[in-house]
Fold this sequence. Notes:
This protein is mainly β.
Amino acid sequence: xIMNAGGSNVRNLTPTGYQGDPSFTPxxxxxxxxxxxxxxxxxxxxxxxxxxxxxxxxxxxxAVRGGGTCGCDVDATVSPDGKTITYxxxxxxxxxxxxxxxxxxxxxxxxxxxxxxxxxAIKHDWSPDGKLIVFTSPxxxxxxxSATMWVMRPDGSHRKALTRNxxxxxxxxxxxxxxxxxxxxxxxxxxxxxxxxxxxxxxTGLHVIxxxxxxxxxxxxxxxxx
Length: 226
């Protein structure tokens, strides 16, 4: 769906099928999204903001299905220069084999950025200068594990953990970069509740913004002010 910023003029852009995780390209001329085809595979698609010119990127087709596996593509996000799409690919059951992928906006250069063992969470973001991607691994921690927030370069190299692994005592889930790139907003969860927090991309300056004992802050994003 799309609407005016004030909530008026709501329009359905994709009246049939199952679509999700829409994201504008930086120039505002296209929307990238994920779609489940009637032939039972997922893929990344593009369309104009009015819903016209819907087209699939065939290289991104994910046909891993059957036997309880998902074969889903979710969380499509566009790089600041508008040239690359990153998304999370689920190649097994939820919480077992989730990997971060990248592909050119023209559909070429499909690449896996993280191994399936990283089991990345369904939320990631690009830094405004396009030099870093923030993500969470593992997204569904097993007993004794902790979800940890990471950054890496867009080619998947130089991965760095920004939060400490606390052996299941707390988790950190990535939100997004601030517009000036100096902060990352994210969620910490521990025995005391859910804490909306921020930290510098090098892992310093951790600060808790607010705490809610019962409701987690999901997919947090910054506004236009830094």
